[in-house]
Amino acid sequence: MRHSFFPSPVALAVVLALGCAPAARALELAFPGPAEKTAERAEAFGSLRLPMGPFAAGSLPTQLAEGALSITAFRLGLDQISTLEVMQGLQDQITAAKFEVLFTCETEACGGYDFRYGAEVLPEPDMHVNLGDFRYLLARSANGAFVALLVSRTGTTGFVQVTRLGKAVPVRAASTSVARAPAAEPEATRADQTGKDQTGKDLIAGVEAGRAMVLEDLVFASGSSALVAGDYSSLLSLAGWLQANPARRVVLVGHTDASGTLDGNIRLSRLRAESVRQELLYAHRISPDQIEAEGVGFLSPRAGNQTEAGRQKNRRVEVMATSTDLLAP
């Protein structure tokens, strides 16, 4: 049975510049039931790598897009409506607005865990992705604006994330309630920075003393393992030390807070540590033999997870020496 998609009162008015028209046309994305906007992230100008193929052979193909950025999450009340029906209804509306669908996939065909953690997703609980039931779509308009949809469902609750990049005006929602004010920076994106005044000298001294040292200034993309582009003083100091001491070996260890499952957090923490490793390999030309990457999820907290301050301290990437000469008594 095909369910109807009602443009009112649950329509999301997504304003996009379509084709070559001098003024923007409104694309009304209607949901098949009550919709609640739970979070929104907007940037006047940003860049994002959007998945445009399944995760396979250890990599996720992406399309770099730049321009006005908006990521909006919605929670839907679903009864007997599947994620396929939700996605198909949204896809019909997008194609009717002259967007070309570049890629679409479902759960395992997307790549499961690896696809989800390679994609930009707003943090829990605002956007939840059930790893056993989710769908993704990427589309592009004639003028180069991108729309990416991520649809998931748990029980009778559905979740939809709408990502827009390109010539777009920030999203406005018609007749949808906002569960909470969006944070200027999503909580899950930033590693603990309580020691952000840490000097490079302190970092290297700690590593040489055999201690696990937090790389205090790292920032990761929202809900993702991707390290945000930037000049990180901790990585500059670590890279300089490794270049000057080619016999030294270190391991990067990712940590998370206790939100979510153990398996998911171990995978996310390992992928974030690997993102830091890749930055050192390719941006700083460090030998691959000098750096390993591991993840332990929430198994090694340094604070309680009952408060946001504690969870913030637990989200981190640490570096420690594995060179036997440094570790000898």
UniProtKB/TrEMBL annotation:
Organism: Tabrizicola oligotrophica
Protein name per the record: OmpA family protein
Signal peptide per UniProt: 1-26
Gene3D superfamilies attached to this UniProt entry: OmpA-like domain
Domain OmpA-like: start-end pairs: 207-325
Keyword list, A-Z: Membrane, Signal
A single GO cellular-component term on record: membrane
Xref: InterPro entries: Bact_OuterMem_StrucFunc, OmpA-like, OmpA-like_sf
